[in-house]
Every structure is written in structure tokens, then in C-alpha cells.
Design a protein that fits this description.
By secondary structure, this protein is an alpha/beta fold. The chain has one domain: Rossmann fold (3-Layer(aba) Sandwich), CATH 3.40.50. The protein has 7 helices and 11 strands. The strands form 2 sheets. A 6-stranded mixed sheet has the order 6-5-7-8-11-10, with helices on both faces. It has a 5-stranded antiparallel sheet with strand order 1-2-3-4-9, with no helix packed on it. A hairpin with a 6-residue loop joins strand 3 and strand 4. The chain starts with a helix and ends with a strand.
Length: 242
């Protein structure tokens, strides 16, 4: 059973504040290891004691006390260019829109999870007569939508914002019917990227980065199968082991 999204975000924020005050008061922090928020493995410093890398799932995550407060996080999202009529914005989300149009029919139910203030994917699918609703903890906080089941879920530029990715992916899996699909878009990290110069980490709301092996860990451990990765588009299929 999951806490509501806002409650879990607030709990994480309180925990990070507690750590921050311990650092301020004592001048000390155990900077050697941090537990990975995806798989729980003790992880080592990856970059300037700000990001830690997990040896088990390969995830890279921001140290908790550096995360923004909920108010600052929302303010950061509001600075994004969220004009749903912007051709560049529409082209950016085209891989997810095309996947849904190709594999689903208008009467099937979809959820735009983390839709943000400019739900361009939903708008484009609505134009095609598709049945998709929006949930966002800041801009479309409708918890009743998290009590329903969906044939597909889209998460465009969302999963890198997860403070607790294991809990979030479990929840997304529970929201899907058996055989349902989860479409995500994010930028994956690999060893060809110079992390110090990587623009994607410079957004303060990006707190967890995935490698291909991280997605494979999620597939194996969190109730998914048939993982497909096509550039920024990630496609999971939900299955029930019963």
C-alpha cells in the first residue's frame, strides 16, 4: 500500500531537511556511501559528493539533502516552455504519441502520469479521439485517478524526477492491466557521456538517472517484461506472475 504522492514527497523532503540540519550542526556527514533509492544497495560517490552511483542497478542519484523543496520544485517546472501548440514540443513527444497510436485504440484507457502544466501528449491523443486522463502531483492532483486501471501509461520526462523510483515504478505497474504498457521518455546515461559536462544533470529537479542496465533491473524485479529501448523511448509491458 502506497502513501499518496504528495505525502511521500513531503516525507522525503522532511528526511532531507533532517540530514541537512545534521550537517549544519555537526559539520559532518557520512559521504562514503548512500543507499540507492531504487534497489537499496550501498552506493559510492560518483561525482563531487553530489551524485552517487549504484553498483547493483547502475542508477545514478542526487544526494537527498540537495533536492529542492516542493515549492521550489513546482516553481522550476513552471519555467518550462509548456505551450502545447509549439511544433517543437509536439515533435519532441512524437515517439510516445506514435507508439500509442500504433498499438492502442481510442476506446482503451490511458493515463498521462506527470503530465505537467502543458499536457501535450494528452492533447495530441485527444485530437485523435483517444481516452486519456492526466495526473500530476503539482498541476493535476486527482488521487481518484490512481485508484483505477489503465491499458497504457505515458511518462514523458518524468522518471528522472522520482525521489523513490522503486515505489513509483511499483505504483505504475499496479495501475496497469495485465499486459498493459508503460511508455517512458528520459535521457539515458552511458560511459560515452562526460557527466561533468552533461547538460541533463544541470536541471535541479533531475534526481535519478538511468542506464540501460538500470531499466533491465526494473524489468526483472518490479513486474515488467519485454523491455524495449529506442533512443529516448522506453517501453515496458506489465505482467502478473500468477
Amino acid at each position: 500500500m502506497f502513501l499518496p504522492y504528495r505525502s511521500r514527497q513531503y516525507l522525503c523532503y522532511k528526511q532531507s531537511l533532517s540530514l541537512k540540519w545534521r550537517i549544519i550542526l555537526t559539520g559532518q556527514v557520512n559521504a562514503e556511501t548512500e543507499l540507492c533509492p531504487l534497489c537499496g544497495t550501498a552506493s559510492q560517490n560518483f561525482f563531487r559528493q553530489q551524485y552517487f552511483g549504484c553498483p547493483e542497478c547502475g542508477g545514478i542519484f542526487m544526494i537527498p539533502h540537495l533536492r529542492l523543496s516542493p515549492a521550489k520544485e513546482k516553481a522550476r517546472y513552471e519555467t518550462h516552455n509548456n505551450d502545447v501548440t509549439n511544433p517543437g514540443y509536439q515533435k519532441f513527444v512524437e515517439p510516445i504519441v506514435s507508439a500509442v497510436l500504433s498499438d492502442f485504440s481510442p476506446e482503451q484507457r490511458g493515463l498521462d502520469f506527470g503530465a505537467g502544466p502543458g499536457p501535450v501528449i494528452s492533447c495530441l491523443l485527444h485530437e485523435k479521439g483517444f481516452n486519456i486522463v492526466q495526473y500530476d502531483p503539482f498541476f493535476a492532483d486527482k488521487p481518484e485517478l490512481l485508484q483505477q486501471k489503465y491499458d497504457y501509461i505515458v511518462c514523458c520526462e518524468v522518471i528522472e524526477h522520482f525521489y523513490q523510483p522503486a515505489a513509483e515504478f511499483r505504483r505504475l505497474r499496479e495501475l496497469l492491466v495485465d499486459g498493459g504498457r508503460l511508455f517512458c521518455m528520459t535521457m539515458l546515461y552511458d560511459e560515452q557521456i562526460d557527466f561533468a559536462r552533461w547538460f541533463y544533470k544541470n536541471d535541479e529537479t533531475h534526481v535519478f538517472f538511468y542506464r540501460a542496465q538500470t531499466l533491465a533491473w526494473i524489468e526483472r524485479n518490479l513486474g515488467f517484461r519485454n523491455l524495449q529501448i529506442k533512443d529516448r523511448l522506453i517501453d515496458f509491458t506489465c505482467f502478473s506472475p500468477d
